[in-house]
Carbamoyl phosphate synthase small chain
Amino acid sequence: MKAQLILEDGTIFIGDGFGSHMDTIGEVVFNTGMTGYQEILSDPSYCGQIVMLTYPLIGNYGINRDDFETINPAVKGFIVKEAAEFPSNWRSEFTMDEYFKMKNIPGIAGIDTRKLTRIIRQYGTLKGAICSIESDPSEVISKLRQTKLPIDQVRRVSTKNSYPSPGRGKRIVLVDFGMKHGILRELNKRNCDVVVVPYHTTADEILQLRPDGIMLSNGPGDPKDVPEAIHMIKQLLGLVPIFGICLGHQLFALASGANTVKMKFGHRGSNHPVKDLTTGKIAITAQNHGFTVEEKSLQNTRLAVTHIALNDGTVEGLKHLDYPAFTVQYHPEASPGPEDANHLFDQFLAMIEDQKQEVSTTCQNVLI
């Protein structure tokens, strides 16, 4: 079935529809990963967005039960050059078309994804619609220009209730702003006793759980649209060690007095080089974000830059100069992508242990 991809600037692509036949509107973004399309489509950070993959062949190893980052995908649509109809992999259970129909996700294939990428890189992210070939382009363009992008993405994808993921190690409260399951897997792998809580959980409620550390997860949208989380982080700074990833990194920066700004087209892919300013080492990282911490806004804060993106020099990591807290803009849990930065989870647990020993030493000195 033929379908249209229409952008708010009037650009029209004609392709082949797959998955759901429903019309959809969202912010069109691109991801440069060569593999990992299943993890990408199930990443909650894409809530409200239509994702275009720059790699031309997608779906060739099918959809399996193990590689999801959430149970119910939040993407608005998928754009590919070629959607494989006959996947070949021993784990494959569904084709993309079959899975997208089950989850009511519209897709379009057979368009010039290189041209679309160049448009986004030149003009920035644009609103777009995947719709029927019978739809009137002028009406769709008018609707796109009037449509306001949602600001409640975190509410949509965050867990509604707290739940445990038990272990016998350190108690970690994981604040779910749109958490990828990869983060939880890495904490479970280290035997952490994890409690996942909703994005609007208060600082007092978190402290009642007696955490050894707090993890701020990834998530979709503008961090300034989650003021309750910024307030919560402000209250927790200095009380419990904190590790933030992606949106959690941005929220931590805002809570510490810095500013965030929207990027022209963002970082989305699994091949982004990041430099650790402490060691000088380069890591190839997985990224998915459309906002960044404004470097000049850090001047009057107690935050120091620890990592930078080599492609454009943007801030990729921060640490607090007074409190046990650090964050990164990229995804150390990968899924998909390289695991160069996986050690940051160990660094977080080591920071918690150091903080415990410091508190213990202080208490002993007071007693003496």
